[in-house]
TrEMBL record:
Domain of life: Bacteria
Keyword Hydrolase belongs to the record: yes
Protein name: Cytokinin riboside 5'-monophosphate phosphoribohydrolase
Record has Phosphoprotein as a keyword: no
NCBIfam families, sorted: Rossman fold protein, TIGR00730 family
Phylogenetic lineage: Bacteria, Bacillati, Bacillota, Bacilli, Bacillales
Organism of derivation: Priestia endophytica
UniProt record similarity statement: Belongs to the LOG family.
Amino acid sequence: MKRVCVFAGSNMGLNPEYAKQARELGRVIAMNGFHLVYGGSKLGLMGEVANGALEQGGHVTGVMPRGLFKEEIAHRGVSDFIEVADMHERKAKMSELSDMYVALPGGYGTFEELFEVICWAQIGIHKKPIGLLNVEGYYDPLLQLIEHTVNSGFMPRVHGQYVMQGSNPKCLLEYMLDFIPEGYKSKRVPPAG
């Protein structure tokens, strides 16, 4: 795996740890020789993950719809910048360019991107690992909802295991590298920190 697609908020959020861990994720991606694929913005956690990768000399590809493309939003320092027609094309291009997905904290846009790739995995469109960087427990309510969905009979337990999570960027990526497509289970125990 060489290309990591990161979904992230275009805002910083209120907890400074979100930005710190976003930048660290970018650094870890680059230090492992992976390429970062993301939404192309210089703002919020999106900008932080890109800057982290760039600081380590990493290759960063930004993908942004023309309607969002403004001088003050687009990150001009990325290695490659791809303009697309709309949000649907953006998600398709990001997925095409990526071997795995990681979601940082974010809002509706991040959730929508994350759930789309989970749904694609569920119906067999891809067999790529999906991870949550669960900074300061940000995704705990979502993980509880997934468990509730399984326990309520709306999806099989194996589908509830499609999403891997960890609170440390390096440990999460290592965990995801051991990804086994059949059943989306890792050979390792989930990272503690």
